[in-house]
Design a protein that fits this description.
Layout lengths: L9 E4 L24 E11 L4 E2 L3 E4 L2 E4 L4 E3 L2 E8 L4 E3 L2 E8 L4 E2 L3 E2 L22 E3 L4 E4 L2 E2 L2 E4 L4 E4 L2 E10 L4 E4 L3 E11 L4 E4 L9 E4 L6 E3 L4 E15 L4 E13 L4 E3 L4 E2 L7 E4 L2 E11 L6 H11 L2 E6 L4 E5 L5 H12 L3
Parallel strand pairs: 2-4, 2-5, 2-24, 3-6, 3-25, 4-7, 5-7, 6-8, 7-9, 8-10, 9-11, 12-15, 13-16, 14-17, 15-17, 16-18, 17-19, 18-20, 19-21, 19-22, 20-23, 21-23, 22-23, 23-24, 24-25
Antiparallel strand pairs: 1-28, 26-29, 27-28, 28-30, 29-30
């Protein structure tokens, strides 16, 4: 692989701790917020399981928000009722009529009951008409699809599909295990009834040049929408009548606006393309005078490399992508290494791809 600048492969130095800055609330601003401010918004309720990380963007609900243990939120919370479990850290402010706070939960901004409802308004889904033709991509296939109106779209496991930009009107959209869905440019999926993505599904833009709000999934369905574990999704999902469930260890870049939202354990959320998951200080080791994270490798790809190239590196290292900076096309990988020797061996694997 020639998409890596090898002099930019390095382990992440522990130059300092994580700085959390509280957001200040302007007393002149209105509690009602534009929907675009929210990485997650539900007209009914939101439940985040333990160890979830939301790295930027507000979270809001007109009724209830429950945050599980050890979850970290960078952004403000808005709801009628909010429950924060133990070891939760809110790097922002909380606006709720009723707040239940575990003794060791922390709110780094202000806590206020000054809130009006509805907190935000989910956009209505414009009318559309699916077609009558089914598209079924067999497993292990690689192909390109073009905009149009279809009935049921099914992507087989281990397939790689490139979507040309435009509008796709569908009755259902199913992606099987390990499917890779690549967006060339601005794309909208209007889906009438069913959305189901299995585990290890990836949805991303080809050159990281389009923002998540330009990859639009919208549906009027009242059926539940499920995304499998270890999913990596870049999109804006608008589902005002649905319950949306994101399974464990998933990475979401963009927005989800729905009736109900459940985010399972160890998921990571961010409302923009850039993201970085804070590393655990317990993973720091010291060799001589140098301290560094023993399980983090940063790879600076060339400008022509895509998210798919980063996914291949992740598979090679049995790693998880935990950081991305689009300006320099730099990815951070969390790898299962516990010693300097194991870390050096992982870096050697990447260099050997040339």
């Amino acid at each position: 692989m020639k998409d890596i600048r090898f002099h930019h492969i390095f382990s992440f130095l522990a130059a300092g701790g994580i700085v959390l800055a509280a957001f200040n609330f302007n007393s002149n601003s209105q509690p009602f917020r534009p929907i675009e401010e929210f990485v997650l918004f539900a007209s009914d309720k939101i439940h985040l399981a333990e160890d979830v990380q939301s790295l930027r963007g507000n979270i809001g609900s007109n009724k209830e928000i429950k945050i599980g243990e050890h979850t970290q939120i960078t952004g403000d919370l808005f709801s009628d009722k909010i429950h924060l479990a133990g070891e939760v850290v809110i790097n922002g402010s909380v606006f709720a009529k009723r707040l239940k706070l575990a003794q060791n939960a922390k709110i780094l901004g202000v806590s206020s009951t000054e809130i009006t409802f509805p907190v935000a308004q989910i956009p209505e889904i414009p009318p559309f008409l699916p077609g009558g033709q089914d598209i079924k991509i067999q497993p292990n296939q690689e192909t390109t699809l073009y905009p149009g109106s279809f009935r049921d779209l099914e992507i087989g496991e281990n397939s790689k599909i490139t979507f040309q930009p435009g509008i796709y009107n569908l009755r259902s959209f199913t992606a099987k295990e390990n499917a890779k869905l690549i967006l060339e440019s601005i794309t909208t999926f209007n889906i009438a009834e069913d959305i189901k993505f299995s585990e290890n599904t990836s949805l991303f833009s080809k050159n990281n040049q389009i923002s998540p709000d330009q990859i639009l999934f919208q549906t009027p369905t009242k059926k539940s929408i499920n995304f499998g574990k270890n999913s990596s999704l870049v999109f804006r999902l608008i589902a005002p009548n649905s319950k949306v469930r994101i399974a464990e260890n998933s990475l979401i870049r963009g927005n989800i606006w729905a009736s109900e939202i459940f985010i399972a354990e160890r998921a990571v959320l961010r409302d923009t393309a850039w993201f970085s998951i804070p590393s655990d200080p317990e993973d720091i080791i010291q060799v001589g005078i140098v301290r560094f994270f023993v399980n983090i490798v940063n790879v600076n790809f060339t400008s022509g490399a895509t998210a798919e190239d980063a996914e291949r590196i992740a598979q090679l290292l049995d790693a998880k992508i935990v950081g991305f900076e689009p300006t320099t096309n730099l990815y951070s990988f969390q790898i299962p290494t516990r010693t300097k020797e194991e870390l050096d061996a992982a870096i050697a694997k990447i260099k050997a791809l040339n």
